[in-house]
Amino acid sequence: PTGEPPEPLHRVVGNNYAPDNPQSNRINATLLSLVRNEELNDMLQSMRDLERTWNHKFNYPWTFLNDVPFTEEFKTKIRAATKADVRFDVVPRAHWDVPSWINNDLYRESTALLKEQEVQYSDKISYHQMCRWNSGLFYHHPALANYRYYWRVEPKVHFFCAVDYDVFRYMQDHNKTYGFTINLDATRRPEHNMKANGYSTCHFWSNFEIADMEFWRSRPYEEYFKHLDRAGGFFYERWGDAPVHSIALGLFEDKDKIHWFRDIGYQHIPFFNCPNSPKCKGCVTGRFTDGEAWLNKEDCRPNWFKFVG
Ligand code: GDP
Ligand code: MN
């Protein structure tokens, strides 16, 4: 019941995953973090958890990206936290800067309204830039050009369970496009559902994602993103990359290509995915949140199970 796939193929075989082994069984994949210099300690914490539970067995390379150059301290401390290859790079300005068609006055007026509605981070321009970048630009970063799969890792998250198979190879062998641990229903109030025009608001929580970039690099996705980008909602609203990714998966991808990693114990405040398994330590089995009780209503996994049968 851990949900772990039984195939021995995905397990550690001999020395095949040694960091410097050119014949390693690793597939074309990287761990990926967009992160700020100030988040060094939180990043180290996420990294230690993921290295301890999984990556020390597989040594997948890490890619760290930032809108400004990483400090020497950041690079030194991060390199010391893994045996695997690490690359640091800066996001090209053309991918990060507010696009020319965004009207600054309109941005300020609209975000002032959003702030009144207590939309989190709505008045922080870098948050809008980050959501836009994660929606439609990260996979064009030159450092990722030769990669197909990535695992997104944010600072300050936790991983709880020993995972003994190569999850990237699992994605590839089973022809999966997208893997998630948590999905959320942002708003259960009827007036919001109406504003969403029938969209349930269920979305895969994208601070964790293991995915195939061929999907984002495909023509339908690119055109969809371009359309959203031109519409301006990354700035005039606070469109997030989670619903943007999720709606695209709903529109353009087969549900069989989406995988719930029930066996990867995970926390990003305030939510958990905590399996019932002796392999997991440090989280409470089945707990969805350690925040206020009403947050339990945001769990959208039951919807997903119903949908996929
Ligand atoms: P939250 O999870 O929605 O509360 O947002 P976070 O603050 O965790 O941001 C999401 C991700 O984007 C994290 O990996 C952050 O480190 C990263 N991030 C957010 N804003 C910036 C930014 O301005 N610059 C950089 N380099 N990373 C950012
Ligand atoms: Mn976060």
Summarize the structure in words:
The chain is an alpha/beta fold and 309 residues long. It has one domain: Spore Coat Polysaccharide Biosynthesis Protein SpsA, Chain A (Alpha-Beta Complex), CATH 3.90.550.10. Helices cover 36% and strands 14% of the residues. It contains twelve helices and twelve strands. It has a seven-stranded mixed beta sheet. Strands 5-11-12 form a three-stranded antiparallel beta sheet. α5 packs parallel to α11. The longest helix is centred in the first third of the chain and has 19 residues, at 40-58. The radius of gyration is 19 Å and the shape is globular. 35% of the residues are buried. Residues 1-10 have low confidence and may be disordered. The site of guanosine-5'-diphosphate has 12 residues, from α5.
